[in-house]
Design goal:
heterodimer; A: alpha/beta; Rossmann fold; two-stranded antiparallel sheet; 12% strand; B: Cytochrome-c3 Hydrogenase, chain B; four-stranded mixed beta sheet; three-stranded antiparallel beta sheet; binds iron/sulfur cluster
């Protein structure tokens, strides 16, 4: 079988790998040459495509990433952790950093790096596949591509909830109340950021009655810009559609469950990520 | 002291085995977990209501279990009972989790260990009559993620369960479609499991052992007809007598956690004893499961290996029986989705609370202290930790079998891999 590909898992949750296993249609079309989760291989073989999931958290992550990238053709960073650090980034918050490192110091197997890094801070990345985790159909696109695929520009387009004239005056808690099934979550006072989040996921969260937390990262317009501009775009949507005080929005936008995803792209200026690199 | 190091593959997460020898004698065998993200630390100061979203990311393989355990802990703090119709949906979510996990562990992780004299590197290498195992195995496991997707709204980090209930009812067309899917996959799963059982026997004949069979303590949070939703934690003693049953918030009276040198995972003990959790623990506690096909397998299992059974490789077969049980149980439950309220009102408040679910690897406990709406302390008692000492004990048994005064049998490397996979440890979870 032609076009071998490999999967390198750094510090993450393996959700990205599980999603790839769900995209089982690749079996028989491309050869999986490396993926310790499901196959035993002593050494990293040369591959045409390398998918990297997880963030660079330990010295071992760093070593394995460097070694594997040398043997890979195209490198695709997969999932929030690889692209921006993801959930483990919360460990770099000033309030908890010292505590974290002092408690972990004694074990040393392997050593934790002083700061968590996304993959493209270490090696060249050709393409990005954002999502936490990305959907199986997006993995298929990443592996086989198809130049004429157009994904929805934003989550709103896939969501299908109707926008109304209703103008809420305060934010509802993330899990508060029971949302009306047909109406836009913003009209109901939920902090949903689907309007400027890139589409392609088919909006499973909002369809099940939960606000989008932005796991697919910013839509094309914000990829090469700073996260402030993404924040601004979200603020503007709420100004236009609600009477919720902007301080309230501001505060909630920095809540951990959102900042996990919202800082997705912009704060790593090591390399500029261009929209055409992002699936 | 000579040291042997075996990196592990076909398990969830990063770990290796270290065996230390002096003068041809095995001194230690340890499982080193080599990753850490630090959830217990970085959750400090996070608003409690966000826990169900954030903690799902502890593990992408068993995110459902973390999502629900966190919600149950918050519900204990807020003193709110989710309505029965919501619990029903959550149970379906857990069944999806189990189907996905047991199919993965059986066919992707352990089955390649069985054929021939050396096993295979992966399930993609099966040939001859077995050549389509990979495709069929992935089909079975995908039904698990489809059920998670249906019941949880998202196929990996689910979102439909929320504090107080669930955020929306199940779509009817989705329920119908999934019923058909499961009905078509159930015979496929049985067929694969039969083949698995055959190959397993072949391995047994070849190596002449099923590994460490020391009678042991078993821990599980199950009762007959359960759907892995968790309730009281129950402990079986080595003679098969139920020795304790306690509520999640009482866990500290029975379970102690100890750090493990040179590993990012802690280990738990029951009243100072090494114990085992996961599939075999559940089957030892539940001699009858309550669905027709699974109970036939159960009888066959007990006839061959007795009850309670102790040899560690039997964890693998036990997972197969559970896979069949979960498919049957999900099918049964999808027939009648109850109507009624799906979310109970509550007022968030501060306090301390615990939540438990029976995750694929055993009871998972989340324990939170909330002050001013923020997490002051978060503790996770992880199923893989319950098994850490049992794994090391079984590694010692394997090492002693294959390390001789003057030479080391090459079977050792395969044996330690099989030992660890029998416990299906999840290192992302264990270290979190
Ligand atoms: S991006 Fe999400 S799913 Fe993927 S490894 Fe990170 S936490 Fe897990
Ligand atoms: S709706 Fe939002 S949070 Fe949900 S999968 Fe899509 S981008 Fe991610």
């Amino acid at each position: 079988m032609p076009n071998p590909f490999g999967v390198l898992q750094l510090s993450g949750c393996a959700g990205c790998e599980v999603a790839l296993l769900d995209a089982q249609e690749w079996i028989g079309q491309r050869r999986l040459a490396y993926m310790p989760l499901v196959l035993t291989a002593d050494e990293f073989p040369p591959v045409d495509t390398l998918l990297v999931s997880g963030a660079v958290r330990t010295d071992e992550d760093l070593y394995r990433l460097r070694a594997a990238s040398k043997r890979a053709g195209e490198l695709i960073a997969v999932g929030t952790c690889a692209i921006s650090g993801g959930v483990a980034n919360l460990g770099d918050r000033d309030e908890v950093r010292d505590l974290f490192f002092s408690a972990m110091e004694r074990r040393h197997v392997p050593r934790l790096l002083p700061k968590l890094r996304p993959v493209d801070a270490i090696v060249r990345v050709d393409r990005y596949l954002p999502g936490c985790p990305p959907m199986p159909h997006l993995f298929m696109l990443a592996l086989f591509g198809s130049p004429d695929t157009r994904l929805a520009a934003s989550v709103c387009i896939d969501c299908g909830r109707k926008k109304t004239k209703e103008r809420p005056t305060q934010l509802r808690g993330l899990q508060e109340g029971l949302p009306d099934p047909g109406i836009c979550l913003i009209n109901q006072g939920y902090l949903c950021i689907g309007a400027s989040t890139r589409g392609g996921c088919q909006a499973p969260c909002t369809k099940a009655g939960n606000p989008c937390v932005g796991c697919r990262g910013p839509s094309d317009s914000f990829i090469s810009r700073s996260s402030d501009e993404w924040f601004n775009a979200i603020r503007k949507v709420f100004l236009r559609m609600t009477d919720i005080p902007s301080e309230e929005i501001e505060r909630e936008l920095h809540a951990p469950h959102l900042s996990l995803f919202v800082f997705q792209f912009a704060d790593y200026t090591v390399t500029t990520r261009r929209p055409e690199q992002v699936l | 002291m000579p040291t042997l190091t075996f990196p592990l593959s076909r398990i969830e997460g990063h770990a290796q085995i270290i065996i230390k020898l002096t003068a041809g004698e095995v001194q230690h065998a340890t499982l080193q977990a080599t990753e850490l993200r630090g959830f217990e630390y970085f959750l400090q100061g996070v608003p409690a209501e966000q826990l169900p979203i954030i903690v799902a990311r502890i593990c992408g393989v068993c995110s459902t279990a973390h999502h629900l355990a966190a919600i149950k802990a918050l519900e204990a703090i807020y003193q709110v009972e989710p309505p029965p119709a919501a619990v029903y949906i959550r149970e379906l979510l857990m069944l999806g989790q189990l189907i996905q996990n047991q199919a993965t562990s059986l066919f992707l992780f352990t089955m390649p260990d069985f054929p021939g004299s050396e096993g295979l590197p992966s399930m993609f290498e099966f040939g001859g009559d077995d050549a389509n195992i990979a495709r069929r195995a992935l089909e079975v496991r995908r039904v698990g993620t489809e059920l998670i997707g249906l019941a949880g709204g998202q196929f990996i980090h689910p979102i439909r369960a929320v504090t107080g209930g669930v955020s929306s009812p199940l779509p009817e067309d989705g329920v119908r479609a999934l019923r058909e899917r499961i009905a078509s996959v159930l015979p496929l799963a049985c067929e694969l499991f039969e083949r698995y059982w055959e190959l397993f026997q072949g391995l047994h004949d070849r190596i002449g052992t099923l590994g460490d069979d020391t009678p042991s303590h078993y821990l599980a949070s199950v009762e007959e007809g359960h759907a892995y939703y968790g309730g009281n934690l129950r402990v079986l003693d080595p003679d098969g007598v139920e020795q304790a049953s306690f509520a999640p918030h009482e866990y500290q009276r029975y379970l102690t956690e100890q750090p493990v040198e040179n590993s990012y995972s802690n280990a738990t003990l029951f009243n100072g004893h090494v114990m085992r959790a996961n599939s075999l623990a559940r089957l030892n506690l539940l001699p009858r499961l309550g669905t027709p096909i699974a109970d036939i397998y159960m009888l066959r299992f007990q006839r061959e290996w007795g009850h309670p059974a102790h040899a560690i490789l039997l964890f693998d077969l036990a997972r197969g029986i559970e896979l069949v049980y979960c498919l049957e149980k999900a099918l049964e439950m999808l027939e009648h989705i109850p109507d009624g309220e799906i979310k109970a009102p509550y007022t968030p408040r501060d306090g301390e609370g615990c939540g438990v679910v029976e995750a694929p690897r055993g009871p998972l406990i989340h324990h939170f202290n909330v002050v001013n709406g923020l997490v002051e302390k978060a503790r996770f008692i992880i199923p893989t930790q319950h098994n850490i000492l049992a794994i090391e004990q079984a590694l010692m048994v394997a090492a002693r079998r294959y390390v001789h005064g003057d030479r080391i049998d090459l079977e050792l490397e395969r044996a330690v891999g099989r030992v660890v996979r029998a416990f299906d440890p999840c290192i992302s979870c264990a270290t979190h």
